[in-house]
Amino acid sequence: MRSFFLGHDLFASDVAWISALIYFGDWRLSGTRTPPRHLIDYANLVQALDPDFKPIYDWINTTYINARKNPQMQDLHTVTDFLERGMERFPLDSEFPYMAGSNYVGYSKQRSPRERLEEIARAIGYYERASLLDGCRPMLPFTLGYFYKRRRALVAQIDGDVSVDDALSRTQQRDFLKDVFL
């Protein structure tokens, strides 16, 4: 595409962005249940041509996940990997790690407790990362508190009991929240 537009990457990026919107819109209007296969391809193209185009990161995060009725772990990793590139490009923007953490919320009913624990660990990691940045969402301490509690419950479910390490973990979590938010 670059050679076609003779080095006018921003213009080519705009054309790719418009094409991506049309592609997704056509899929939505078609009523088909099969998720659109090329959303990530469009997003990769736009990002390669203009890595500073912030809307592409939020757009792919929203459309890719919502186009799937029950996203699988690989779907979550695909879109989170894309968001990781946004985090590298915009390291001070708290929205990228917040979106990545949110990808692991609410899709795990059909998963085993160990898989849910892995999802929660990922969510906590991204939420903690977001909490260290200026402009993080004000409800983030409460969200983190919920996930710490949920993680403890899953560990107890898996192990059959809450271990001594969990008590230490609670102290570390409380100290983290105090340091960041107080």
Task: Please describe the topology of this protein.
Blueprint: H1 9-30, H2 39-49, H3 55-66, H4 73-89, H5 95-102, H6 113-131, H7 140-159, H8 164-181
Helix pairs in contact: 1-2, 2-3, 3-4, 4-5, 5-6, 6-7, 7-8
Describe this structure in words.
This protein is mostly helical and 182 residues long. 70% of the residues lie in helices and 0% in strands. It contains eight helices and no strands. Helix 4 (73-89) runs antiparallel to helix 5. The mean pLDDT is 85.
Labels describing this entry:
8 helices, 70% helix
State the helicity in percent bands: 55-70%
* Content of β-strand: under 5%
Coarse shape: flat
Q: Helix and strand string, N-terminal first?
A: HHHHHHHH
Largest sheet: none
Low-pLDDT ranges: none
Could you give the distance between the termini? 50 Å
Question: Number of helical segments?
Answer: 8
> Gyration radius, to the nearest Å?
19 Å
**Total number of β-strand segments?**
0
The overall pLDDT, averaged over residues, is 85
Structural class: mainly alpha
